[in-house]
Write a structure and sequence with these properties.
Keywords: Lyase. By secondary structure, the chain is of the alpha/beta class. The protein has ten helices and eleven strands. The strands form four sheets. The protein has a five-stranded parallel beta sheet with strand order 6-5-4-7-8. It has a two-stranded antiparallel ribbon with strand order 1-2. It has a two-stranded antiparallel sheet with strand order 3-9. Helix 4 packs across helix 6 and helix 4 crosses helix 8. The longest helix has 16 residues. The chain is globular.
Length: 287
Amino acid sequence: MFSCFAARVLKGASAVGAAGARRSMATAPQKVPMSRHEPTKYINYQRIEDNLGVVRKRLNRPLTLSEKILYGHLDNAAEQDIQRGVSYLQLRPDRVVCQDATAQMALLQFMSAGIPEVAVPSSVHCDHLILGEHGAASDLARAKDVNKEVYDFLATTCAKYNLGFWGPGSGIIHQIVIENYAFPGALIIGTDSHTPNAGGLGAAAVGVGGADAVDVMAGIPWELKCPKAIGVKLTGRLGGWTSPKDIILEVAGILTVKGGTGAIVEYFGSGVDTVSATGMGTICNMG
C-alpha cells in the first residue's frame, strides 16, 4: 500500500517507520458519506483515532501507516494481543467487495444467517464470468445469456439485503472499487486476490475467501494474522520507458514470490509523490 494519499488526512505526533514523517490519523468532518452510492453510510475516522490512542499507549513505539489502518480497525483495541507475525487480530473492515463467481456461495451462506441486511457496506461485481473470446459486444451478450440465472440471483439478493450491484458490463471490480469505494485509511476486504489495487488510494485492501466475506457481512469480526511490515523507500522519479510496473517487478525480484507472505509491503519516500494513483494501484495489485 502507499502512504502519500493517506498522509493527506494524517497529522500530529506519530512517526511513520523509516519515512521519518510525524503523522497521525486526523478526525474527518462529521457525516462524510463513504461513497456517492451510499449517502447514508459515513466514513468513521474517529473510530480509528480512538483505537490508535489506546494502541499507542500500549505499544509505545512509532506505527507505520498500514499499522495505523489495521490497528485503527481493531474490534477491541484495549485487550487485543498485537505481535507482528504471531497474533491473530480481530478487525472491523469498512467494506466488503465480491466478484460474481465467489459471491454466489457467499450470498447463499449469508442468507442462511437470517439477517435482514449486511452489517457493513458491501457490493457484488459481475466481471469474472465473462469469457473474453470474440470481442466485447458479443462476449458480453453471450455472458448475459449463459449466466442469466446467476445474474438474476445476484441482482435480486443484493436488492433484498442492501448490497450494491454492478451488473455485467459495468467494468472490472478493482477499477470500480478504486474509482467509487476506496478512500485513504479504509480497510477493505474482497473475494479476489487483486483487491490490493485499492491501496493506490491509501487503503489497506486485502483479498480473502468467501467465508471471511460472509463473516464481515454478518457482523462478525474478521480474523487476520498480524502482518509483518516491509518498507520500500522510493526516491527520484520514473523516466524514459519506465512505468510503475517496473517498480513492482524489481521489488518482486528482490523479495521473490514467497518473500511478501504474511506481510504488508508499504511504499514511502519522496518518489511516491511522482507516481499516479492508478500507477500505485498497479503496484499494489501486482504485489
